[in-house]
């Protein structure tokens, strides 16, 4: 809330809608940076209404050094989450979300892909039809990768070694 210059300290608003640059630099797990290695393989887009986001992955082939031991397959995740600005309420004596669309999320996974096969996929994560995202709400788009082990081609057990990265804030 240091960006709110009006009001009494301790009661100033928290405006995520004015802090996109700061949120975009958020590191979700500094020990797992596999997703950082894929920047040249994806692009992303979203409409002005902020109700969905598309992740386009083209010819992604994962380097062997990045693959956890025992992994046979992987999936790419396109995830969007909403975070509202917050204002202090003297009535409740706590911070309250300025938008009713706070803390909502949507996601889309790619198909399970064999480790040695290049993935090309378009994944559109979208909020339910009729959703309206107001200006007091910020959308954070993340791209992630998860690794799996498959024993019979039908059951996929998740493995440690995946990661998630913030790719857009709007």
What does this structure look like?
The chain has one helix at residues 20-24, and strands at 42-45, 52-60, 73-84, 86-89, 94-97, 105-109, 113-114, 119-126, 137-150, 156-169. With 170 residues, it is mostly beta strands. Strands 3, 6, 7, 9 and 10 form a five-stranded antiparallel beta sheet that branches. A three-stranded antiparallel beta sheet has the order 1-2-8, with no helix packed on it. The radius of gyration is 19 Å and the shape is elongated. The two termini are 19 Å apart.
How is the topology of this model organized?
Blueprint: H1 20-24, E1 42-45, E2 52-60, E3 73-84, E4 86-89, E5 94-97, E6 105-109, E7 113-114, E8 119-126, E9 137-150, E10 156-169
Antiparallel strand pairs: 1-2, 2-8, 3-6, 3-7, 3-9, 4-5, 9-10
Tally of DSSP helical segments: 1
Order of SSEs: HEEEEEEEEEE
**Given the helix and strand composition, which structural class is it?**
mainly beta
> Major sheet: size, sense and barrel closure?
5 strands, antiparallel
Q: Report helical residue fraction.
A: under 10%
Termini, distance in Å? 19 Å
Uncertain segments of ≥5 residues (pLDDT<50)?
none
Could you give the count of β-strands? 10
Strand content: 35-45%
Shape: elongated
- Rounded to the nearest angstrom, the radius of gyration is 19 Å
Average pLDDT level: 90
């Amino acid at each position: 809330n240091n960006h709110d210059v009006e009001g009494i300290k301790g009661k100033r608003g928290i405006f995520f809608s004015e802090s996109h640059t700061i949120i975009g630099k958020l590191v979700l797990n500094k020990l797992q940076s596999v997703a950082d290695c894929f920047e040249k393989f994806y692009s992303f887009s979203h409409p002005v209404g902020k109700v969905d986001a598309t992740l386009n992955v083209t010819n992604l082939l994962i380097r062997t050094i990045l693959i956890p031991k025992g992994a046979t397959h992987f999936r790419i995740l396109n995830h969007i989450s909403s975070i509202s600005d917050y204002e202090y309420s003297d009535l409740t004596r706590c911070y309250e979300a300025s938008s009713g669309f706070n803390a909502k999320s949507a996601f889309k996974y790619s198909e399970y892909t064999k480790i040695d096969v290049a993935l090309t996929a378009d994944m559109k994560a979208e909020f339910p039809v009729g959703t309206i995202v107001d200006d007091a709400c910020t959308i954070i788009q993340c791209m992630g990768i998860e690794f799996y082990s498959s024993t019979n081609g039908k059951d996929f057990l998740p493995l440690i070694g995946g990661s998630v990265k913030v790719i857009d804030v709007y």
